[in-house]
Write a structure and sequence with these properties.
about 425 residues, alpha+beta, Alpha-Beta Plaits, 5-stranded mixed sheet, 16 helices, 17 strands, globular, binds prephenic acid
């Protein structure tokens, strides 16, 4: 069964005008960089004008039931919460007047439906992701989602304009789920934002921390407070998000349960702060990605980062080293490398008649590097990388977050 984004792609690939425009654009931008053009082309089908876009929306609306059934990890609860009908009507209204051409100044496009920018995040109000969403887009309307995948879907289905999702934390490491979702969905990274995460231990008013038998929170937050939890000697339980943990304690009047969450969550859900700054390291920072349906046009007048994902064509000694030399040779700094299993080809089996059968795991490599795709050296690096890659996808070229990190203050309040 088709997913909504597949349907949109299919509809658009029949549109000659769109293809022609995409080709024009490729003349200007490509300079040999096929990967980036592919990424801009994919923006073109989404921004190709009212008819096409509304067609996509209608198709998505019609297929809505199917999408819900098909996505095994998506709960129906959230989809109800977002009120499809009214939102689709709103979206459709705005599409008729969309000014479409991509422009060089298109760094943070305002919403096209005339209202505040809607930014999807995972969690409930008081979650760190909500804070990240409002740091990334100060005047936005933050839209809570139950799961990461729903935040992706909210943008794909035009229910939100952007999503802001955590990708890595200085103590807990990578948020693997979001790496996998970046590949499964067609959104583009349009920015990054980093926030200092200052955790508090919360409990019902009057409860002392010695009375707690268990502490609940997001798994990343539990991992970031390992020392405190070990000292307390309590049981740990993972829930969907930090603020949701606080809300759960209040809703169920749990006297023996604490939550790890922000000071803002304490305020919102009427809990006491039993301990403050309980993360293992005071410089606890989470990096979030800003995602949109369309990519931004890369620039060279400010520091940019580019994120890609690739799989090696041939797994042989030195293959990854050779692939990455494309960046080292051009003095391009790699800021992150992450490998994830290839779901569609998890195992490569090689018969060695003398010794038996060797089994190798196959990986996708996610790379962030410090350069803009508007720079020739980045285009050439990707050109060279393509020689070693059986698969290569551009995830986005976007401005680096150069703002100072809030010094793990209680800024979440
Ligand atoms: O639960 C939250 O408050 C979140 O925003 C999620 C999340 C995460 O996924 O890493 C975000 C930042 C913190 O590192 C802890 C949890």
């Amino acid at each position: 069964m088709l997913r909504s984004d597949d349907m949109a792609l299919q509809g658009c690939s029949n549109d000659g005008a769109v293809t022609a425009r995409a080709m024009d654009l490729s003349g200007v931008l490509s300079n040999g960089d096929l990967a980036y053009v592919a990424c801009v082309q994919s923006a073109e089908w989404q921004s190709a004008g009212p008819t096409l876009s509304s067609q996509c929306v209608r198709q998505a609306e019609k297929e809505n039931g199917m999408i819900v059934n098909q996505q095994d990890e998506i709960s129906n609860r959230k989809l109800e919460k977002l009120d499809y009908d009214s939102t689709f009507r709103e979206t459709f209204k705005g599409l008729v007047t969309l000014p479409k051409p991509l422009s060089i100044s298109d760094l943070a496009k305002p919403p096209t439906h005339g209202s505040r920018l809607k930014v999807a995040y995972q969690g409930v109000p008081g979650a760190y992701s909500e804070l990240a969403a409002t740091k990334a887009y100060p005047d936005c309307e933050a839209v809570p989602c139950d799961q990461f995948e729903e935040a992706f879907q909210a943008v794909e289905l035009w229910l939100s304009d952007r999503a802001v999702l955590p990708i890595e934390n200085s103590l807990g490491g990578s948020i693997h789920r979001n790496y996998d979702l970046l590949l499964r969905h067609r959104l583009h990274i349009v920015g990054e934002v980093q926030i200092g995460v200052h955790h508090c231990l919360l409990g019902l008013p009057g409860v002392k921390k010695e009375q707690l038998k268990r502490v609940i929170s997001h798994p990343q937050a539990l991992a970031q407070c390992e020392h405190t939890l070990s000292k307390l000697g309590v049981a740990r339980e993972a829930v969907d998000d930090t603020a949701g943990a606080a809300q759960y304690i209040t809703d169920n009047n749990l006297h023996d349960t604490g939550a790890i969450a922000s000071a803002r969550a304490a305020e919102l859900y009427g809990l006491d702060i039993l301990a403050d700054g309980i993360q293992d390291d005071s410089g606890n920072v989470t990096r979030f990605l800003m995602l949109a349906r369309e990519p931004i046009i890369p620039r060279t007048d400010r520091p940019f980062k580019t994120s890609i994902v690739f799989a090696l064509e041939m797994e042989q000694p030195g293959a990854l080293f050779k692939a990455l030399s494309a960046f080292a040779l051009r003095d391009i700094n790699l800021t992150k490398i992450e490998s994830r299993p290839q779901r569609n080809r998890p195992l490569r089996v090689v018969d060695d008649f003398n010794h038996g059968v060797a089994k190798y795991f196959a990986y996708m490599f996610y790379i962030d590097f410090e350069a803009s795709m508007a720079e020739r050296r980045a285009q050439n690096a990707l050109g060279q990388l393509q020689e070693f890659a059986g698969f290569l996808r551009m995830l986005g070229s976007y401005p680096m977050d150069m703002t100072p990190i809030d010094p793990a203050s209680r800024s979440a309040s």
